[in-house]
Amino acid sequence: MQQTTLDDLAPLPDPTALPRVFGRADAARLGVTDNMIAHRLRTGRWRLILPRTILTTDTVTWLDRQHAALSFAGRGSLLTARVP
């Protein structure tokens, strides 16, 4: 008998359509529930790159860091300098 996982019970709407970085505030718009986030963070499939900001891939790029900063800062935020 195969074990049922949360991914079986509540699959992501379309995993290929998810951005590499998104904030918890964006999760509802993307169709991702708090339980889905918690499960994927707990199992290591996703990780927090900043508080309330989720990384959905294994590697972090400079662009991911910029997106994470803007997502964390919220609507109306602005990056003033780019340092490679």
What is the strand and helix layout of this fold?
Elements: H1 6-9, E1 21-23, H2 24-30, H3 34-43, E2 47-50, E3 53-55, H4 62-73
Number of strands: 3
Rg, please?
14 Å
Helicity, in percent?
25-40%
**Outline, from the CA principal axes?**
elongated
H/E topology pattern: HEHHEEH
The span between the termini is 51 Å
**Beta-strand content estimate:** 5-15%
Strands of the biggest beta sheet: in what spatial order?
1-3-2
Taking the sheet with the most strands, its summary is: 3 strands, antiparallel
Number of helices: 4
Structural class, from helix and strand content?
Answer: alpha+beta
Overall mean pLDDT:
84
What does this structure look like?
The structure is a single chain. It contains 4 helices and 3 strands. With 84 residues, the protein is an alpha+beta fold. Strands 1-3-2 form a 3-stranded antiparallel β-sheet, with helices on both faces. Strand 2 and strand 3 form a beta hairpin. The chain is elongated.
Primary descriptors:
84 residues; alpha+beta; 3-stranded antiparallel sheet; 3 strands
Question: TL;DR of this structure?
Answer:
The chain has about 80 residues and is α+β, with helices and mostly antiparallel strands.
